[in-house]
Write a structure and sequence with these properties.
The protein has 779 residues and is an alpha+beta fold. It has 4 domains: 10-217, Cytochrome Bc1 Complex, Chain A, domain 1 (2-Layer Sandwich); 240-379, Metalloenzyme, LuxS/M16 peptidase-like (Cytochrome Bc1 Complex, Chain A, domain 1); 427-517 and 526-585, Cytochrome Bc1 Complex, Chain A, domain 1 (2-Layer Sandwich), CATH 3.30.830.10; 599-772, 2-Layer Sandwich (Cytochrome Bc1 Complex, Chain A, domain 1). It has 25 helices and 21 strands. Strands 1-2-6-3-5-4 form a 6-stranded mixed sheet. Strands 11, 12, 13, 14, 15 and 16 form a 6-stranded mixed sheet that branches. The radius of gyration is 27 Å and the shape is globular.
């Protein structure tokens, strides 16, 4: 199968100074925009820390033309797209993704909110409380505070050392001087000359350019204002320092190499292959992980931070080996590494979705960038390398597999072995239940992308193998296959989604890894409470059996799989590779427990004092009629839920609702993390909101059948989303035409169906599952 053609962006500058990047990619099913404003936290007057982030929030609160209920955030969410924004040191980004047919509506809303924000005092006071809640969470987050401490080695007058989060004290909304500064910042930076628009989609370049021009015409015009240059990163001629806190050792290197050069270096620093730095550090039991990154670059300044997760407080040997490897790398021939790096970049662009493509600002590794990297490494005055390092090997999944010279023979055999091969294969096939691995052509099978789902069931809690498969996941991801694994009670699920060509080889490697002795699981990575609960939710919903006293046995496990959208050639290769998977192929039942009327509570420990809670409410049955009605109900209540709990009650910053599917079971999921409310308060607010559902439905002139149904059109759904829907449909026993049937059911739903679904939800007809970071203290 040939690799997809690479999409090269076209760069333009329009008459009003707006810089535009256009990327035509026919394989895409959606279109995306990324708007970058050349202004960030470090461009704010010193008197008002957090002003840039505050303004970013305010821009989403509606305009005279598009109130919040019709603004970009609500519009994109209503049509099943993606939308967000981010304020960094010297840039602010706004980005969204939508179906092609309504993409221009999103651009129209983005231009209007950037140009005509309301900035009312009422909005500002309310949104300041949201930022203050974020500030409280940030001040209590260990990783965030570690980052603050890490940067204390920089020059005292560099803005990276300053406070930029924003809170009640730094955002005095009532102060007229603050209001003048807020409006001056918007007028100065939020205009055409200060912006770059990136569009990616399947439309012809001429159509993308026309969209960009229309967007440009709606902006306030203005020139590019150069941003002030920062002071030196470090005093005197210092270039680097290290910082040790807990089990993390950070090596910080300040330099002037461009980002693309440093990303090239990080790629090989992070490589986990034998002969590299990480492998040697693990062999000597000095570290368990290494991550090199470039968190900051601006105006010829850059920070390279190498984060070692250490197993010892004696760090001298780590620094010695790092310098030795850097010296080896500096004096190596980079020809093959540059070729591999170019292949990695090309494959990334060949497989990224619309939003990722629009936000891809990576530059090709140029000769000046290579020279700058060599100069940076020379400036470290590294001693000659003494260790026998090995260059990182090529990613085995980036190139087509080598065909066997003698078709039909096992590697190493001759034609004399043909009878033996047939017997061995027949015997193997006799042990395998072919019906356990099935293939769906609901998406067609003539594309470059596809998906493979594999699920094992054990007689004990499934093993956690994330760290064991880390290197395989990295190589697969670089080759365009997203490989993920998840333990859910006694089940273990593997997903492969992306480019078909490497999938059989990735599956072969997975089978080989699972047939080897497994290393013990590492301690989980700390995460914010609501994310920890989301990770635990599938396991909490699983009908686990067994005591867990005996370890899960791969040889006794049963497994089943589903391939989606794969070509016949890929299917054949997948079947051959699957024969080597551990365990026994079998049809696994996914009966769900009858929880009608029950309210179950599961407490999960998290590293925070803030209250966090999920409420998962499964539909009473797996029927398509119930799924359609509950999906429409979730679609209708998403915006009111956010409005009530986040905007009006101001419970916190992590508040969401939506449809969730777990092992083929569809339900509504509500999530809240609050720095001020208790778990009891959150539960009471949820109950109050759900009591109002009938009134909400009765007062809705349009319940949104059409935009919701359009979200399930196969020709507009990205492969990952289609595959996830079809996998759960497979588990639920739905027919192959599940997607069109679901669309029809959604379109047919009426107000009476929604009221019935609301009553089912209120009565816990499918049960309620609470997952919280504390015990239940109320009925």
């Amino acid at each position: 199968m040939p690799a997809p053609a690479q999409s090269h962006p076209i760069h333009l500058t329009l008459a009003n100074g707006l810089r535009v990047s256009l990327r035509h990619a026919p394989r895409l099913k959606r279109c995306a925009a990324a708007l970058r404003v050349a202004a960030g936290s470090h461009d704010v007057p010193l008197a008002w820390p957090g002003l840039a982030h505050f303004l970013e929030h305010l821009l989403f609160l509606g305009t005279e033309r598009f109130p919040a209920s019709e603004g970009l955030m609500a519009y994109v969410q209503r049509h099943g797209g993606q939308v967000n924004a981010s304020t960094r040191e010297r840039t602010t980004d706004f980005f969204f993704e939508l179906p092609v047919s309504i993409f221009s509506d999103g651009l129209e809303r983005l231009a209007d909110m950037l140009t005509h924000p309301r900035l009312t005092t009422e909005d500002q006071l309310r949104e300041r409380e949201v930022l203050h809640a974020e500030f409280i969470a940030w001040s209590q987050d260990a990783a965030a505070q570690q980052q603050v401490a890490l940067l204390q080695g920089l020059a005292a007058d560099h803005p990276l050392r300053g406070f930029h989060a924003g809170n009640r004290d730094s955002l005095p909304v009532e102060n007229e001087a603050f209001q003048q500064a807020l409006r001056a910042f918007h007028e100065h930076f939020y205009q055409s000359g200060q912006m770059t628009l990136s569009l990616a989609g399947p439309q012809p370049l001429a159509a993308l350019e026309a969209l960009a021009q229309r967007f440009s015409d709606a902006l306030a015009s203005g020139p590019l204002h150069p941003q002030s240059a920062p002071p030196p990163l470090m005093p005197d001629q210092a270039r680097r320092y290290q910082h040790l806190a807990g089990n993390h050792l950070h090596q910080v290197i300040c330099c002037g190499a461009p980002r693309e050069a440093l990303e090239f270096l990080c790629t090989w620093l992070n490589a986990s292959a034998p002969g590299g730095l990480l492998a040697e550090l693990k062999t000597q039991q000095l570290v368990t992980a290494l991550h090199a990154s470039v968190p900051y670059d601006f105006a010829g300044q850059a920070l390279l931070i190498i984060d070692f997760t250490v197993e010892t407080q004696e760090t001298a040997q780590i620094e010695t080996l790092l310098d030795d490897w850097l010296s080896f790398f500096a004096h190596s021939d980079w020809t093959s590494l540059r070729e591999e790096f170019a292949l990695l970049a090309a494959r990334q662009q060949q497989t990224q979705g619309a939003l990722a493509l629009a936000r891809n600002y990576s530059e090709a590794l140029s000769e000046p960038a290579v020279a700058a990297l060599k100069a940076m490494l020379d400036s470290l005055h590294l001693p000659a390398s003494q260790h026998r390092w090995q260059p990182a090997p090529n990613n085995p999944f980036l190139r087509p597999p080598v065909k066997e010279e003698r078709a039909g023979l096992i590697r190493g055999q001759t034609s004399a072995h043909r009878g033996l091969r047939t017997f061995a294969q027949d015997r193997s096939r006799g042990r395998k239940d072919a019906s356990a691995l099935t293939f769906s052509h609901a998406l067609g099978n003539d594309g470059d992308e596809g998906a493979l789902y594999l699920q094992w069931r054990f007689n004990a809690p499934a093993p956690e193998l994330g760290s064991t498969l880390q290197a395989l996941r990295e190589n697969a991801g670089q080759a365009g296959v997203e490989l993920s694994c998840e333990a859910m009670g006694n089940d273990w699920l593997v997903k492969m989604i992306g480019l078909q060509q490497p999938m059989p080889a990735v599956l072969e490697a997975l089978a080989h890894a699972l047939n080897q002795p497994q290393a013990s699981a590492r301690a989980p990575v700390p995460m914010i409470a609501i994310r920890a609960l989301l990770k635990a939710l599938p396991g909490c919903c699983a009908n686990a059996t067994g005591t867990g006293e005996a370890p899960a046995s791969w040889s006794e496990a049963r497994w089943q799989g589903l391939g989606i959208g794969l070509t016949a050639t890929c299917e054949t290769a997948i079947k051959a590779a699957a024969a080597r998977l551990p365990g026994q192929p079998a049809i696994i039942d996914h009966d769900v427990a009858d929880l009608a009327g029950q309210h179950l509570w599961r407490a999960v420990k998290t590293d925070t004092s803030e209250a966090a809670l999920l409420l998962f409410c499964p539909a009473p049955t797996r029927s398509l009629a119930d799924e359609a009605a509950w999906r429409l109900l979730g679609h209708l209540l998403q915006a009111p839920f956010y409005q009530k709990l986040r905007v009006e009650l101001q419970l916190g910053y992590a508040i969401f609702s939506g449809v969730r599917q777990i092992n083929g079971q569809t339900g509504l999921l509500f999530g809240v993390q609050s720095p001020t409310a208790s778990l009891e308060d959150i539960v009471e607010h949820l109950h109050n909101f759900l009591r109002q559902l009938p009134t909400l439905i009765e007062h809705s002139a349009d319940v949104g059948n059409q935009p919701l149904a359009e979200q399930f059109a196969p020709d507009t759904l990205p492969t990952a989303q289609s595959a996830e829907l079809l996998w759960h449909a497979h588990l639920a026993g739905h027919p192959s035409d599940y997607l069109p049937q679901l669309q029809q059911r959604i379109l047919a739903c009426n107000q009476s169906d929604l009221l019935q679904a609301a009553r089912q939800l209120q009565d816990a007809a499918g049960g309620w599952r609470y997952v919280a970071n504390g015990p239940r203290t109320i009925d």
